[in-house]
Amino acid sequence: MSNFLSQPVYRGAAFLRNKLGNLTWGPLVSLARSAVLAQLAPIAVGTLVIIDEPRGGERLVFGQQDDEQQQPPTNGATTKPNGTAAALPANGNHHKSSSNNSSQRPAYPGRSNPPPPPRVELTVRSEAFWTRLALFADMGFAEAYMLGEVDVAVAAADRDGGSGGAIAKPKAQGDTVGDAQPTTDEKTTLDGNLGDACASGPRAGGEGGQPGRGGGSGGDGLAAFFRLFVLNRDALGDGATPLSALVGAVAGLARAANTLPTARLNVAAHYDLGNDMFAAFLSPDMTYSCPIWREVRGEGQEESLQQAQMTKLQRFIDGARIKPTDHVLEIGTGWGSFAIEAVRQTGCRVTTLTLSREQKALAEARIAAEGFADRIEVLLMDYRALPVPETPYDKIVSIEMLEAVGEKFLGTYFARVHQLLKRDGGIAVFQCITMPEGRHAAYSRREDFINHYIFPGGYLPSITQLLNHITTESKGTLIVEKVENIGGHYARTLRLWREQFLANFDERIRPALMKQHPGMGQEDVEVFRRKWEYYFAYCEAGFVTKTLGDVIITVGREGAVELMEGIPL
Q1: What is the C-alpha separation between 30 and 85, in angstroms, rounded?
Q2: What superfamily in CATH does domain 260-290+303-488+546-564 come from?
Q3: In the chain, which residues have pLDDT < 70?
Q4: What is the pLDDT of residues 382-425, one digit of tens each?
Q5: Cα distance between residue 381 and residue 361, in whole Å
Q6: Where are the domains of the chain?
Q7: Does the model's pTM come out above 0.90?
């Protein structure tokens, strides 16, 4: 579908989802509620507790029950979604309950002991939640959360101390993450139309739309909720309803392709929100991609996020075999962390490309502060517009930029890499978040929360897609040397980013938003906060369950003998 036609259709799908999702007509809500509860009935792994505030705090429990919960309710019966009494097995369906769950708090993923099944408490604040979820499935749930129609927490007895109430607010900023403090010269005001970013989906206000009323516990509960659904995916399916599938498919077809002008707008929608915001949750190196953590070696040996990011950057410097004489092309600057580290270690020359004015400004300031302005050139340019130099680049590096290319232009991307990389001995290293092969076809047909609200135009390829394009577009001259999946390292990273984002929101992020956009109301700011909280938790769950991957692919031309360094010949 052409961009000229796609935008009206895309906006129409969003308008339909917003209007229908706000309906709270009694009979419709009852029908929607029954449909949702029936869909949740097959939960068998973990526990989901629903507290329905509009119905006087009625409590429904799905999934596994502990010893206390397995005792029959005081009325000796369970309640079906349609309200009729029946005896249901304790391990499968839901029943009314007034008891709290009690179990050990889940261990953090990555430790030697696997975490127990999640136990999640979902509090419904508005009846619009049921309509939104029944009609629009996962997108409906995301929008209900952003609007404050539902809050999610780890079940009460699983929290530290075993008491009820919201999970404690993340600790104040420490020295292991989120310490980036730009100098006065580096600080920039927030740019981009953030009002539109907050308003791109449901707006605050209207029927049932009062964001943040519950002050929910947020990300820990959200991550556990998403993990619960992944663990029960075979029984629950993808949760799609006929209407949600139709709207998602229409929006997916209408999604604007990443043409040259559209690509810049899509990047600006995420990265031009302001450097101060990203500095509030990233580590001081300002690397916004998956790091590589050391293996857990016991208490007291915890490394900082910055150390983990440096390990990943080192993997790229070593993997590309960068030498002082190399001219390196980086596609996707970020805030300059790779270029700075590569030049610091090797003395090479780097040309780096970005489509974000905000990133370019801060990257250049950081580069100048390091004294590397004569070695690093930052270009505000699309990779398709970069002229092929008389002497092609010795090495090409791209760190989590491929997700912004879009399905239609994956071939174009690797064709450009083929044109820009020297033919004799060139080496390229790419990092990209991937979708598993088995889920990729369904993913490609539908719009989801990430490519609608966070990364417009974004697309996660499969590993097979990447490898096929590398081979085809290079006419077989880019030889795959190594494929490494580091996706498991992302879960902890996203958790740390989320904790720092929330810990610093009131002090650093909220004032910056209000200063740049004085017309924003408090409800708009709250929608923005909950959107990002949802984003971090949504992605954390995807990686901790290995639903998503993140691969580093190293390729070399014939004659790239540097890749054999260290091998006895």
Answers
A1: 17
A2: Vaccinia Virus protein VP39 (3.40.50.150)
A3: 1-25, 66-114, 156-218, 238-273, 296-301
A4: 999 999 999 999 999 999 999 999 999 999 999 999 999 999 99
A5: 14
A6: 3-175+203-253, 260-290+303-488+546-564
A7: no
